[in-house]
Task: structure prediction
Amino acid sequence: MRVRAAPRRTIHAWRTPVAIDADMGTWQGITALISEGARPEPRVPEAPRTRACVRLWDAARCGESPMFTLAHLSDLHATPVEPKSPLPLLGKRVLGWLSWRVRRHRVHRPEVLEALIADLEGTGADQVVITGDMTNISLASEFPAARDWLRRIGSPERVTAIPGNHDAYVRVPRQISWDLWAEYLVSDAAGRELLGSEERKTEGLEFPSVRLRGPLALVGISSAVPSLPLRATGRVGRAQLERLERVLGELADAGRCRVVLIHHPPDPGALSARRSLTDAEELCGLLRRVGAELVLHGHTHRTRLASLPGPQHPIPVVGARSASDLGIRPEKCARYHLYDIERNDGERGGEPGGPPFRIALRSRAYDPVTGAVVSAEETALC
Ligand SMILES: [Fe+2]
Result:
């Protein structure tokens, strides 16, 4: 980690509920809109409740540098869609294959993702998260190809991923699909301890996943479930929601900056029913009760800023574009995000009683004319 000055612009709170599609050139308007929100209630710090929490509480503070930078990529869609025979195309995949042949292979380009990865390497980001859709139609051949992309982006210690709906386009045995990415998906040892004995015993692929990195807790949710043809819905499910509520509560007690990763936008009404999260209401109710410091998603292929109500403070919600989009539609042209995160301890410009972490967003944008990746908007989220 390194010390870096955060942008000075401050947003006091997020108006809730609000969901904004942030197309090109509208960020200033968004910032102004967000700035209108009411000042949040001061948060009263609580002592950690359990022994595990005490350990996490201490670990979250020991040796902590002031600034932690998290990179966010999404919707890689850079794997070849080349079935060796027509057999795998039976069923829903044939529609996805046709879409790829007609349009998507021109939109999603591996050279664009290469450019973003090369740029990311120069940023010195402490950690990288990828919010799903590493594949296109979940062909068996796409999963090892996507693993190669993950390895190209970084080691499993530095990169955390979750699956998206295209990674569950149809039902594929775990052994030849998500298991190939397991080292990027699973909880770390501290996360397994927090999740409980069942996950610790199996060390398997369970969601939510929990990884502790610096002051952050990266909490990965899977909303990736197969859906009917022409639909791209997602679902978290009751079992995952129950574990999520407990673990977010424990991580709050531990003083962690809880970054929730999910492929589908969590806020109800963000997308049409055909593409939405079917249990968004339940997830939002959970977040309203236990909170989170930041929610990151993909799926929309557009930059998107929104917020959800939390118990003490509004929760910023940020959606990233596809990391391979060539920009035939400029508002979808590839970008990735950098979040500069530091504790709000009332010093260095922080606000006493404000959200426990200050988070600023920087965008890095692909330029389809030059092929370069350049600095785009910067916005203080909280
Ligand atoms: Fe996608």
The chain has ten helices and 13 strands.
